[in-house]
Amino acid sequence: MQNQIAAAFRTTLAQAALMRVPSLESCRNWGQRPRQRLAAIVLALVASVGLIWAFPMGVLVRLTFWAVFTLIVAALLKTAATLAHLLARAPAEKPSVAQAQLPMISVLVPLFQEIDIANHLLYHLNRLDYPHDQLDIVLVLEETDTLTQNALMRAPLPPWIRIVTVPDGHLRTKPRAMNYALDFCHGEIIGIWDAEDAPAPNQLRVVAAEFAQSPADVACLQGVLDYYNPRQNAMARCFTIEYATWFRLILPGMARLGMAIPLGGTTLFFRRDVLEQLGGWDAHNVTEDADLGFRLARHGYRTQMMPTTTHEEANCAPLPWVRQRSRWLKGYMVTWLVHMRHPGLLRQQMGLWRFVGMQAHFITALSQFLLAPLFWSFWLILLGLPHPLQGQLSPSILLAMGQIFVGVELITLCAGLIAVRGPAHRHLLLWVPLMPIYFLMGSLAAYKALWELVCSPFYWDKTQHGLSLRAIQFP
Predict the structure, then answer these.
(1) Whose CA is closest to 457, among 342, 368, 327?
(2) Most buried by CB count within 10 Å: which residue of 115, 122, 162, 226?
(3) 222-233 burial, b for 16+ CB within 10 Å, e for fewer?
C-alpha cells in the first residue's frame, strides 16, 4: 500500500517535501537570481578590498575590537549557561507511562551510502525496550542509493522496521528526505536518529514519560549526544570534550535561562502536530536542526533537554572534521540570514530575551571562527613580541585585550573540565588543555563555509560514517 501511494503521488509528494516550510522562513529563495547575487558579491568584495587598501590599520583596529567584543559576549553566555545548569535543582524523575498508554512513536533514520553501518544500526535498533506494536522505525533511503539498499537487503528487517524510498530530485538533502518520509509515518511522536547512532535501550520510554508530563508548549525533546569511540585518537577525545560541554552544560543551561536553543541533528523527538504545523524541515538548509530550533521558538514553542543519551561516532580524521564543521557553519550563516530578514517581526515573535540570546549565539559562534587569526595574534602580546597594532593602540589597551583573550580561554577550559568530571569521561581531563589547538581547524572550516555560502549554498557535504567501526566491535 505504501509503495502504491508513493507511485501514484510521486510528483506531488516530492514537491511537497521541498516546499513544506513557508517561504518567509525558508532559504530556498537564496539560489534565485544568480547573476544579481554574483554582481552584489563582487561589488562587496571590491568595496572591502578597497577599504582595506585605503585604511589597513583602521580596518584591523575595528575588526579587533569587534573580535574582543564577541569574545566577551561568548564568555558571558557560556558562564551564565554553565552556572544556570550547575545551580539548578536536579529534575524530579518522571513517572513511567503505563504499557497500555504508550504512544505510537515513529523514528526517522536517514541513510545515504551507509554500506558499512547497516549491521551496527540494526543491532542497536533491536536492543530498544519499547513495545513493537507501538514502534515505527522508518529507514529513509534515496532512490539512487543502491549501495545502502543492497546492504539492507542482506539484513532481514523485522516488521516494525520499514523502508521509505525518496524519489530523486535536483536537491538531495537530509531534511528533504525527512519531509518526504514524514507523510508515511504512523506515530504521534516523530523522532530522528542518525545511521551511526547507538541510543539507550530505554530512550523511547523516557521520551513517552517526558512528553506525558510536559506542558503543551514543549514541542521538542533533545537528548544528550555522546561518543562511543572517545579513546580512538586525540581528535576523537577533543570532539568528545566539545560535545560533553555543549550537551551537558551549555544547552541545558541555555534552556533553563529561557533561551531558544539550536537543535542537534539526532536524538530529537517532536509532537507530530506541531512539526506539521511548522512545515517540517527546511529542505534547502544544511543545518535544518538548528533552523528548526529557532522556528519553534518563533511560534511560541519550547525545546526541553531530556535525561537520555545516544552514542554516535566521533569524527576522528581532520578532513572529514573540516567538511562536517564547514557544513554546520554554513548552515548557521544561512539560518541567521533567513531569520533576520525581518528583525522586527522576529523580535515580536520570539520576545526580547530570546531575540537577544539568538543574536549572541549566532554572531559569537561565527565571529569566533572567522576572526580566529586576530585572536591568535594576542599570543604575541603575552609572549612579549611586537603586535601589528602597536602604535595604533596604547600598550595598556593591547595588554587588556590579551588578558581578556586568556581569561576567556580559561573559562572555556574550566567548562570543559566540569563537563568531563563524571566517571564516564574522567579519562579526558588531561586532554582538555588541548582544546585551543583542536579548534584551530575551525577557522579553515569557517572560510570554506563562507565560500560555499556564495558558490553552493545548498551543497550538502556529507559526513563520512563508519571510520571507527573497525576499531570498535559490537556483538
Answers:
(1) 327
(2) 226
(3) bbbbbbbbbebe
Can you give the residue range of the structural domain that contains 153? 48-475
Each residue of 77-116: pLDDT tens digit?
A: 999 999 999 888 776 677 778 887 999 999 999 998 877 6
**First vs last Cα of the chain: how many Å apart?**
35
pTM of the shown model: 0.90
Q: Residue 325: name the closest of 235, 174, 227, 445 by CA.
A: 445
Do residues 208 and 188 make contact, with C-beta atoms less than 8 angstroms apart?
no
Classify residue 20 by its DSSP letter. Answer: -
| Whole-number Å distance between alpha carbons of 420 and 248 | 9
d(CA 223, CA 472): 23
Per-residue CA distances from 148 to 110, 127, 144, 433 (Å): 11, 22, 10, 40
Residue 7 placed within a domain: no
Query: What 8-state DSSP symbol labels residue 261?
Result: -
Contact of 144 with 217, CB cutoff 8 Å = no
Distances from the Cα of 229 to the Cα of 97, 307, 318, angstroms:
33, 21, 16
Where residue 293 sits, what CATH number does that domain have? Answer: 3.90.550.10
pLDDT digits (tens, 9 = 90+) for 142-199: 999 988 888 888 878 899 999 999 999 888 899 999 999 999 999 999 999 998 899 9
Task: State the residue for C-alpha cell 506525558.
Answer: 212
Residue 37 covered by a domain: no
